[in-house]
Hints:
Blueprint: E1 2-3, E2 6-14, E3 17-25
Antiparallel strand pairs: 1-2, 2-3
Amino acid sequence: MKFSGYKFEVVDIDNYRIDQLLVTRLDNKSNVPAPKLPDAQGKEDSAA
């Protein structure tokens, strides 16, 4: 299964439950971009 730039593969199943999951990051430019964090402007470092 591919989702949001990652590929998820079930590696091992134990008693009808997923025991191991492999997650691989896809190198594709059509990925959904990560949200940008707010700027740190306005915060001043107070070095004494």
